[in-house]
Specification:
The complex is a heterodimer.
Chain A lengths: L4 E3 L2 E4 L5 E6 L6 E7 L6 E7 L2 E4 L8 E4 L6 E5 L8 E8 L9 E2 L3 E5 L1
Parallel strand pairs in A: 2-11
Antiparallel strand pairs in A: 1-3, 3-8, 4-5, 4-9, 5-6, 7-8, 9-10, 9-11
Chain B lengths: L8 E5 L4 E6 L9 E6 L6 E6 L4 E2 L4 E4 L5 E6 L8 E11 L2 E5 L4 E6 L1
Parallel strand pairs in B: 1-10
Antiparallel strand pairs in B: 2-7, 3-4, 3-8, 5-6, 6-7, 8-9, 8-10
The chains are: A mainly beta, B mainly beta.
C-alpha cells in the first residue's frame, strides 16, 4: 500500500540552527500539505501545494519558515533559525487533488525538539 | 474560532459501540466532513468522509444530520486498539482557498 514518506523521523537541534524536513507524497498525488502539531493540539496547516504552486501559506511564519516543491513531487520544509517554540510534530500529507472529496493521507511525521 | 466542536474526551467499554459527535454548524453546502484518528506519536489515519448521506466502511459509520450541521462517527464494536484522538474536519475558506481545519479532537479511551 502506497504511503507518504517523511524524513527524518526525529530531529534535535539547538535554537538558531537551521533544520530541514523532507516529504515524498503518494505517487500521483498533486496536492501536498505541511502541518505543524503542537503537543495536545490538533494539526495546523502551514502550507498547501497544488503541483509546484503554493495554494495557501497564510499560516506559515515566513520570516523563518520556507517550503518548496520544485518539481511538483517531493517537498522540503525549512526553518531558519529554529526557535524553542518550534518544537512540535511536523506532518506531511498528500491527496489526489484539492477537491473536497479527496481524502488526505498522512505520513508518520517528524518530531522536532529545539534546545 | 473553532469550525468544529467535539467533546474533549469520551470513554467506551470494549465491544460496545462508540458514538463520537461533532458540531460543524458553519459548514458550506458542498464541503465534505472528514474523520481521522491519531494514535500517540503517529500521523493521523483516515477513517471516513461524507457529504449528505450516511456512509459506512470497514472501519466505521458516519451519520450526518439532514441540515448537515452535525455528524456522528460510530465505531460499532470498539476494541482497545481504537483508543486514540478522533478529529472531525471540515475545510474553511482562507484567502480565497478552502483549507482543512482540525480542532482539538476527542480523546477516546476504550476500557476492558
Amino acid at each position: 500500500e502506497a504511503e507518504v514518506a517523511q524524513s527524518p523521523r526525529y530531529k534535535i537541534t539547538e535554537k538558531s540552527q537551521a533544520v530541514a524536513f523532507w516529504c515524498d507524497p503518494i505517487s500521483g498525488h498533486a496536492t501536498l500539505y505541511w502541518y505543524r502539531q503542537i503537543l495536545g493540539q490538533g494539526p495546523e496547516l502551514l502550507v498547501q501545494f497544488q503541483d509546484e504552486s503554493v495554494v495557501d501559506d497564510s499560516q506559515l511564519p515566513k520570516d523563518r519558515f520556507s517550503a518548496e516543491r520544485l518539481k511538483g513531487v517531493d517537498s522540503t520544509l525549512k526553518i531558519q533559525p529554529a526557535e524553542l517554540g518550534d518544537s512540535a510534530m511536523y506532518l506531511c500529507a498528500s491527496s489526489l487533488g484539492q477537491a473536497s472529496y479527496n481524502e488526505q493521507f498522512f505520513g508518520p511525521g517528524t518530531r522536532l525538539t529545539v534546545l | 474560532d473553532a469550525k468544529t466542536t467535539q467533546p474533549t474526551s469520551m470513554d467506551c467499554a470494549e465491544g460496545r459501540a462508540a458514538n463520537l459527535p461533532c458540531n460543524h454548524s458553519t459548514i458550506s453546502g458542498n464541503e465534505y466532513v472528514y474523520w481521522y484518528r491519531q494514535i500517540h506519536s503517529q500521523g493521523p489515519q483516515y477513517i471516513i468522509h461524507g457529504l449528505k448521506n450516511n456512509e459506512t466502511n470497514e472501519m466505521a459509520s458516519l451519520i450526518i444530520t439532514e441540515d448537515r450541521k452535525s455528524s456522528t462517527l460510530i465505531l460499532p464494536h470498539a476494541t482497545l486498539r481504537d483508543t486514540a484522538v478522533y478529529y472531525c474536519i471540515v475545510r474553511v475558506i482562507s484567502g480565497g482557498s478552502y483549507i482543512p481545519t482540525f480542532g482539538r479532537g476527542t480523546s477516546l479511551i476504550v476500557h476492558p
